[in-house]
């Protein structure tokens, strides 16, 4: 029975899991769960994952959520996955685990919080929140600075001084890519000081092409749509009719 | 060279790592880094961990921080650690990993946020923040509910239906124990609806005694001290001398 991956490509951790499968030739069926259409709240999906989150995988009868746990499981359970993704060496593996742990409360929290509260919220039927966006931006900038000065120390092109990518690179870079939906001014202000981070994105894109660009294409569509809506001034939070229109075009 | 564990017993993940070492007979040296005295901000500790956080371990030339990464490393690298702490079975291991991941943005964020903003902040020179405390309490209660209804489903008394404890039980229970510094009213309001969670704490305490109670003793001292300070009305956030005391 083929591996099933329940995902929304707008979800950063969903993209990391799908890219990982494609790069490593893992056969799977992608089942779309569209967050903007609230499909993650359906009774059917609740049977798959009571936590109502993507990504979730179903491997035979085995169900698993949380993208880091999924990436580790796939790296260990599927033959043919190159060692550098999640090395058997306990020291290297521990460092990757620490980057993945650090990610939750730092880059993830800052990036997702900023993008949601300054751009994406209306597409999910929520109000923009400038105060929350400002707090999230602080954490996001501090996190990018930590990646630039600490996690990217060393000779390699990837995190932890490595010459080859690991699941940590995939997870963190997919998170940073979410900034593509922001308007240019915000994105440049936040990202351009961090040259090594920008290089990490390129290296990860190269190491996982063409899948990286294929999976991230959705962000550029959403960015264009958000811009149209801002220009047209039709971002009406209180009108369910316009919300449905938004969703069908995203 | 002995394993060094840089820790503050007031830090929930520090306690989890120390209890794990003691239960499994792992030899180590505990080096106290007192957060309330800002020792984690010293240049010496920055050499050990530029992220300036506890717990951190140093094993020979190898430095590691983030308690889940530390627990996994110790479980795999130290002989004599029983399999149930972090099973070799990939399915069981994956489920434990998913709880540990879930923990960061749910129980950890809710519990630490609530305790800090409603009780502990003055001891660290910060103001109390009732609004942040209220938001954190929502997340904390939702997380305890998730543990009660989802993570504790199954036949065993431990997380994921297991009959024996894993590093996930240790991590989450040490977090919940932080609620011991709260006043009785807050603690009961938040914890008493969750019977299975209360049972999980007891089971974990039993499985790791006497170390569990030894490591958590500090919380009761801090609770008593916070009560004295509240009563005496001397909780000022800006007097270093009273903080050191």
UniProtKB/TrEMBL annotation, chain A:
<protein>
    <recommendedName>
        <fullName>glutathione transferase</fullName>
        <ecNumber>2.5.1.18</ecNumber>
    </recommendedName>
</protein>
<dbReference type="InterPro" id="IPR010987">
    <property type="entry name" value="Glutathione-S-Trfase_C-like"/>
</dbReference>
<dbReference type="InterPro" id="IPR036249">
    <property type="entry name" value="Thioredoxin-like_sf"/>
</dbReference>
<dbReference type="GO" id="GO:0009407">
    <property type="term" value="P:toxin catabolic process"/>
</dbReference>
<keyword id="KW-0216">Detoxification</keyword>
<dbReference type="InterPro" id="IPR040077">
    <property type="entry name" value="GST_C_Theta"/>
</dbReference>
<dbReference type="Pfam" id="PF02798">
    <property type="entry name" value="GST_N"/>
</dbReference>
<feature type="domain" description="GST C-terminal">
    <location>
        <begin position="89"/>
        <end position="242"/>
    </location>
</feature>
<feature type="domain" description="GST N-terminal">
    <location>
        <begin position="1"/>
        <end position="82"/>
    </location>
</feature>
<dbReference type="GO" id="GO:0004364">
    <property type="term" value="F:glutathione transferase activity"/>
</dbReference>
<dbReference type="InterPro" id="IPR036282">
    <property type="entry name" value="Glutathione-S-Trfase_C_sf"/>
</dbReference>
<dbReference type="InterPro" id="IPR040079">
    <property type="entry name" value="Glutathione_S-Trfase"/>
</dbReference>
<dbReference type="InterPro" id="IPR043377">
    <property type="entry name" value="GSTT1/2/3"/>
</dbReference>
<keyword id="KW-0808">Transferase</keyword>
<dbReference type="InterPro" id="IPR004045">
    <property type="entry name" value="Glutathione_S-Trfase_N"/>
</dbReference>
<comment type="similarity">
    <text>Belongs to the GST superfamily. Theta family.</text>
</comment>
<dbReference type="InterPro" id="IPR040075">
    <property type="entry name" value="GST_N_Theta"/>
</dbReference>
UniProtKB/TrEMBL annotation, chain B:
<keyword id="KW-0216">Detoxification</keyword>
<keyword id="KW-0808">Transferase</keyword>
<dbReference type="InterPro" id="IPR004045">
    <property type="entry name" value="Glutathione_S-Trfase_N"/>
</dbReference>
<dbReference type="Pfam" id="PF02798">
    <property type="entry name" value="GST_N"/>
</dbReference>
<dbReference type="InterPro" id="IPR036282">
    <property type="entry name" value="Glutathione-S-Trfase_C_sf"/>
</dbReference>
<feature type="domain" description="GST C-terminal">
    <location>
        <begin position="89"/>
        <end position="229"/>
    </location>
</feature>
<dbReference type="GO" id="GO:0009407">
    <property type="term" value="P:toxin catabolic process"/>
</dbReference>
<dbReference type="InterPro" id="IPR036249">
    <property type="entry name" value="Thioredoxin-like_sf"/>
</dbReference>
<dbReference type="InterPro" id="IPR040075">
    <property type="entry name" value="GST_N_Theta"/>
</dbReference>
<dbReference type="InterPro" id="IPR010987">
    <property type="entry name" value="Glutathione-S-Trfase_C-like"/>
</dbReference>
<dbReference type="GO" id="GO:0004364">
    <property type="term" value="F:glutathione transferase activity"/>
</dbReference>
<protein>
    <recommendedName>
        <fullName>glutathione transferase</fullName>
        <ecNumber>2.5.1.18</ecNumber>
    </recommendedName>
</protein>
<comment type="similarity">
    <text>Belongs to the GST superfamily. Theta family.</text>
</comment>
<dbReference type="InterPro" id="IPR040077">
    <property type="entry name" value="GST_C_Theta"/>
</dbReference>
<dbReference type="InterPro" id="IPR043377">
    <property type="entry name" value="GSTT1/2/3"/>
</dbReference>
<feature type="domain" description="GST N-terminal">
    <location>
        <begin position="1"/>
        <end position="82"/>
    </location>
</feature>
<dbReference type="InterPro" id="IPR040079">
    <property type="entry name" value="Glutathione_S-Trfase"/>
</dbReference>
């Amino acid at each position: 029975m083929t591996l099933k991956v329940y995902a929304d490509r707008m979800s950063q951790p969903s993209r990391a899991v799908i890219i990982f499968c494609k790069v490593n030739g893992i056969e799977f069926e992608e089942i779309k769960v569209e967050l903007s259409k609230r499909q993650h709240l359906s009774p059917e999906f609740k049977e798959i994952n009571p936590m109502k989150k993507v990504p979730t995988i179903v491997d035979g009868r085995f169900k698993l959520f949380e993208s880091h746990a999924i990436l580790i499981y796939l790296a260990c359970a599927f033959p043919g996955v190159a060692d550098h993704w999640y090395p058997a060496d306990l020291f290297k593996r521990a460092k990757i685990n620490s980057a993945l742990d650090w990610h939750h409360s730092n880059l993830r929290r800052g990036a997702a919080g900023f993008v949601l509260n300054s751009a994406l919220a209306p597409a999910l039927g929520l109000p923009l929140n400038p105060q929350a966006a400002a707090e999230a931006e602080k954490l996001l900038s501090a996190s990018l600075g930590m990646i630039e000065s600490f996690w990217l120390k060393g000779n390699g092109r990837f995190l932890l001084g490595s010459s080859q990518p690991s699941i940590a690179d995939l997870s963190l870079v997919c998170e940073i890519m979410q900034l593509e939906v922001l308007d240019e001014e915000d994105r440049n202000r936040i990202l351009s000081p961090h040259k090594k981070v920008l290089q990490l994105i390129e290296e990860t894109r190269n190491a996982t092409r063409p899948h990286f660009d294929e999976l991230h294409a959705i962000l550029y569509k959403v960015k264009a749509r958000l811009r149209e809506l801002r220009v047209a001034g039709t971002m009406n939070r209180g009108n369910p009719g316009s919300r449905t229109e938004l969703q069908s075009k995203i």
